[in-house]
C-alpha cells in the first residue's frame, strides 16, 4: 500500500489547524511546524540514508542541503532514481510566485535544483505564477506582479541553470500552452477536495479556487513535449505539497506518471524563529539588497545567544535556535567548520558578534557575485522563455 496517496477525503486536510496545532498551505504557515509530524500528516516519506546513497551514486557527492537535512522529505524520489538508473530520463519542475523580490531563502531550493540538473542533465521547467500572486495578494496590481515576474526571472537565470535545458513558463504569457492541461486537470478535481486541501473559505475569490490546476499543469507538460509519459521531479518547499498531492491522485487516470517530489524545510527569518517571509523585509536578505542593508539586517538579527557577554561566556549559546548559525551552516560553512562553530558557541567560546561578522562578510561576497550574474542575465531572458517546441 502506498501511504503517500491515501484518499484525500479520508485525511484531515492540510488546512485543519485545530487537530494538529499547525497549518501549512501554499499561502500560509501558522503554528509550530514539526517536520516529522508533517511527514506523517501529509503522507510523504523521510529521505533515508539509502536514498541519499542512491543519489550519491550518480552525483559523486552528498549535497550539503541533504546532509544538513534541509531537503528532508520526498514522494517517489527513489522511483525516479531507479528509473534513471535504467536509462529513463526525467524532467525537473520548480517555480516561483513573483510577489516581491527574491531573498536568500528562495534560492535554496534553486541551488538544489541546479545540482540535480547538473547531475542528471535534466530539462527544467520553471513556472512563474504571476496569476497566483495577483489573485492572492490584497494590494498587488497585475502590472506590479508582472514587474516582479521579470525581476525574479533575473534571479532564476543568475542561478546558472543551463540555457539549453531550462525554460521559464510565465503563466499569463504561456496560458495557451497551459490551458488545455488546466482544463483536463480542473475537470477531475472537485471543490470539496480542493477545499479540504487548500482551506478555501466562502470569501475566497474563484480565481484562487481554480488556480491549483494551473500549478499542476507543468507536471504533465513534459509528457506532451516528449510525446510519451515522462517522469517529473519537483524540488520545492513542503508548503507546496498540497498541489502535488492532488495532482498525484489524478495523474495515472490521465495517463501520466505521478509527479515525484523532494521537499525542503522552511528557511528561518533573521528576526524570529519563523519562516523567512517577504512580508517582513527586515527578516530576509534580498538579492537586491545593497551591502549596507545586508550589514544592518545581519547586525540586527535574532541569535541563539545570551543577553550579555558575561552570560554567553558562562552558559554558551544555542546554535539550534539561531538563524545566524543557520545561514552560516546552510550557505557558507562546510560540515567541519559548522560543527566547530556550534561547539564553540555552546561552550561560550564564541560571541554572537563574531558569527554575525562572519555571516556579513560571506553574504556580501556572495551577493556581489550574484548581482554581477543578475546584471548579465538581462541579456539572456529571451533564450530562457518558454515557447512552442521549447527544446528544439
Ligand atoms: N506557488 C509557488 C510560489 O508561490 C510557485 C510555484 C509554481 C512552484 N510552481 C512550482 C514552486 C513548482 C515549486 C515548485 O512560490
Distance between the termini: 40 Å
Helix/sheet category? alpha/beta
CA-atom Rg in angstroms: 21 Å
> What is the residue-averaged pLDDT?
92
Q: What is the C-level CATH assignment of the largest domain?
A: Alpha Beta
Outline the structure in words.
With 392 residues, the protein is an alpha/beta fold. It folds into two domains: 3-270, HUPs (Rossmann fold); 289-377, Tyrosyl-Transfer RNA Synthetase, CATH 1.10.240. The chain has 19 helices and nine strands. The protein has helices at residues 17-20, 35-42, 49-59, 64-67, 77-85, 104-120, 130-136, 142-158, 175-187, 191-198, 206-216, 221-226, 241-251, 291-299, 309-315, 323-332, 335-346, 352-377, 381-384, and strands spanning 22-25, 28-31, 45-46, 71-75, 90-96, 124-128, 166-170, 231-237, 260-264. A seven-stranded mixed sheet has the order 3-4-9-8-5-6-7, with helices on both faces. A two-stranded antiparallel sheet has the order 1-2. Helix 6 (104-120) links the parallel strand 5 (90-96) and strand 6. The longest helix is centred in the C-terminal third of the chain and has 26 residues, at 352-377. The two termini are 40 Å apart. Bound molecules: tryptophan. Tryptophan binds at residues 26, 93-97, 127, 129, 132, 215, 234, 236, 240. Residues 26, 93-97, 127, 129, 132, 215, 234, 236, 240 line the site of tryptophan (TRP).
Per-chain topology:
Elements: H1 17-20, E1 22-25, E2 28-31, H2 35-42, E3 45-46, H3 49-59, H4 64-67, E4 71-75, H5 77-85, E5 90-96, H6 104-120, E6 124-128, H7 130-136, H8 142-158, E7 166-170, H9 175-187, H10 191-198, H11 206-216, H12 221-226, E8 231-237, H13 241-251, E9 260-264, H14 291-299, H15 309-315, H16 323-332, H17 335-346, H18 352-377, H19 381-384
Parallel strand pairs: 5-6, 5-8, 6-7, 8-9
Antiparallel strand pairs: 1-2, 3-4, 4-9
Residues 26, 93-97, 127, 129, 132, 215, 234, 236, 240 line the site of tryptophan.
Amino acid at each position: 500500500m502506498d501511504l503517500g496517496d491515501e484518499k484525500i477525503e479520508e485525511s484531515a486536510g492540510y488546512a485543519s489547524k485545530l487537530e494538529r496545532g499547525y497549518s501549512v498551505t501554499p499561502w500560509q504557515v501558522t503554528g509550530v511546524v514539526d517536520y516529522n509530524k508533517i511527514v506523517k500528516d501529509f503522507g510523504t516519506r523521510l529521505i533515508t540514508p539509502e536514498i541519499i546513497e542512491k543519489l550519491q551514486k550518480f552525483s559523486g557527492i552528498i549535497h550539503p542541503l541533504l546532509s544538513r537535512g534541509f531537503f528532508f522529505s520526498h514522494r517517489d524520489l527513489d522511483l525516479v532514481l531507479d528509473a534513471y538508473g535504467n536509462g529513463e530520463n526525467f524532467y525537473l519542475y520548480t517555480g516561483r510566485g513573483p510577489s516581491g523580490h527574491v531573498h536568500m531563502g528562495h534560492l535554496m531550493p534553486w541551488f538544489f535544483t541546479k545540482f540535480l540538473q547538473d547531475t542528471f542533465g535534466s530539462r527544467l521547467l520553471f513556472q512563474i505564477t504571476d496569476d497566483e500572486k495577483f489573485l492572492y495578494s490584497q494590494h498587488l496590481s497585475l502590472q506590479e506582479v508582472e514587474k516582479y515576474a521579470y525581476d525574479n526571472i533575473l534571479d532564476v537565470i543568475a542561478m546558472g541553470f543551463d540555457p539549453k535545458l531550462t525554460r521559464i513558463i510565465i503563466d499569463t504569457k504561456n496560458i495557451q500552452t497551459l490551458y488545455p492541461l488546466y482544463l483536463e486537470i480542473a475537470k477531475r478535481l472537485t471543490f470539496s477536495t480542493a477545499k479540504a486541501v487548500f482551506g478555501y473559505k466562502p470569501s475566497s475569490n474563484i480565481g484562487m479556487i481554480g488556480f491549483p490546476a494551473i500549478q499542476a499543469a507543468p507536471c504533465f507538460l513534459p509528457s506532451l513535449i516528449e510525446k510519451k509519459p515522462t517522469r517529473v521531479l519537483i524540488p520545492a518547499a513542503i508548503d507546496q505539497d498540497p498541489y502535488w498531492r492532488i495532482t498525484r491522485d489524478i495523474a495515472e487516470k490521465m495517463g501520466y506518471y505521478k509527479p515525484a517530489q523532494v521537499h525542503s524545510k522552511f528557511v528561518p527569518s533573521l528576526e524570529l524563529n519563523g519562516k523567512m517571509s517577504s512580508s517582513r523585509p527586515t527578516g530576509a536578505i534580498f538579492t537586491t539588497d545593497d551591502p549596507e542593508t545586508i550589514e544592518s539586517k545581519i547586525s540586527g538579527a535574532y541569535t541563539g545567544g545570551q543577553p550579555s557577554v558575561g552570560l554567553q561566556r558562562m552558559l554558551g549559546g544555542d546554535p539550534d535556535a539561531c538563524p545566524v548559525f543557520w545561514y552560516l551552516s546552510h550557505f557558507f560553512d562546510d560540515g567541519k567548520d559548522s560543527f566547530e562553530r556550534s561547539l564553540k558557541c555552546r561552550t561560550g567560546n564564541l560571541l554572537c558578534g563574531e558569527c554575525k561578522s562572519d555571516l556579513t562578510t560571506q553574504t556580501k561576497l556572495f551577493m556581489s557575485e550574484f548581482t554581477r550574474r543578475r546584471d548579465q542575465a538581462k541579456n539572456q531572458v529571451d533564450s530562457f522563455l518558454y515557447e512552442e517546441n521549447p527544446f528544439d
